[in-house]
Amino acid sequence: MAKLEAGISHFGSLEHRVRRVEIPSWDERKLPAYYVSAGRPDLCAPAVICISREDETGAMLLGRLLPVIASRGMAALVVAYDDVSTSRHGRSEILSSCLDYLSAQPEVDASRIGIYGEGLSAALATDSALADRRIAAAVCDGGIWNWARTKASISWMTGTSHLLDDQLASAHRSRLARRLKCPILVVVGGHSIVSVPEGIKLESDCTAARLDLKLLMPPVEPNLGGESENFAACDNDIFAWLEHKLAQTFAL
User: Fold this and answer.
1) Three-state secondary structure call for residue 126
2) Domain coverage including residue 73
3) CB 242 within 8 A of CB 116
4) Is the pLDDT of residue 29 over 50?
5) What DSSP designation does 163 have?
C-alpha cells in the first residue's frame, strides 16, 4: 500500500482522484474497492468496473491501470478477483452491487458503464454482462470458459473425447455470445484464458450472426528470454476500445 500511495502521488492531481471504498453487497461483509474519479465533477462520465486477474490484487491492478485511465475522462471501480470469487453469494450479484455504486455517483453516466476482466475474471465479466443489462460494453471471454465446460460435459456424458462437429460447436459458441447484448472485446493468446484458435472461431461465428465482437491479441516485444507481452500497450488498446464504445452508447 505504501508503494502504491507513493506511486499515485507522482501523478499529482491523481492523488485526489483515488480513494478506497467499501461496496455494500448481498454478503455480510462489504466488498473492498478503489474508486478512481473522472476528475471533473461537471462531467457526465463513463465508468468501468475493473476486476483483477486471479493472481493479482486490486492494488496491483490499480497501479497498472491508473496511467491508462487518468487521461480518458472516465471513472473506474477496481476490485480484486479473490474478493469477488470467494463471496458466499452469487458473483453476478456482487458485481451488480458495483454497478449500483457507480450509478449512484453524481459524475457517472449510469447508461455508460463497462466491465473489464482478465484471466479468470474475463469469465466473471461475461457472467456479469449476461446477468445485468446495465453493462454497456464488456472486455470478457465471450462465453468461451462456459463453452469449454459445456464441451467437456458433453464429452463426459457421451463417453467420447472427440470434438463436437463444426456446425454444432458453432451453434454453441454463437448462442453464448448472442446472449450478450453489448459490444464485446475478447483478449486472446498469452496469459488470456482464450486461445487464439478458439477466439478466431468465436469471432467468425459472431461476425456471421452480426454480433459486435472484436478480438485483441496483446503485442509482444523481444527480450533476452525470447518474447514477452507488452502489457502497457495492451491496456492502452483495451481502454481505447472501451472509451470508443462507451462514447458510442452515449451518442445513441
Assistant:
1) helix
2) 2-251
3) yes
4) yes
5) P
Radius of gyration over alpha carbons of the chain, in Å?
A: 18
Q: Name the average pLDDT for the chain.
A: 82
List the beta bridge partners of residue 75.
47
**CA atoms lying within 13 Å on the CB side of residue 59:** 9
Q: What is the pLDDT of residues 152-170, one digit of tens each?
A: 555 555 555 455 556 666 6
Q: Which grid cell sits at 208?
A: 456471421
CA angle 73, 95, 147 (to 5 degrees): 105
Based on the structure, what is the number of domains in the chain?
1
- 3-state SS, residue 202: helix
CATH number of residue 137's parent domain: 3.40.50.1820
Q: What is the CA 71 to chain-centroid distance, rounded?
A: 19
21 CA to centre of own chain: 20
Give per-residue pLDDT as tens, 197-229.
888 988 988 888 888 999 999 887 766 665 677
With cut-offs at 50, 70 and 90, classify the pLDDT of residue 93: confident
Sorted by sequence, the CB contacts under 8 Å of residue 227 that are 6+ apart come out as 220, 221
- What is this structure's pTM? 0.84
What does each C-alpha distance from 14 to 5, 148, 193, 226 come to in angstroms? 11, 41, 32, 36
- Please check whether residue 24 is in contact with residue 68, taking contact to mean a CB–CB distance below 8 angstroms: no
Contact in structure between 184 and 138 (CB atoms under 8 Å): yes
Residue type, 10: H
The order of strands in the sheet holding 18-23 is 18-23, 31-36, 75-79, 45-51, 108-117, 135-139, 184-187, 213-216
Cell of 136: 454497456
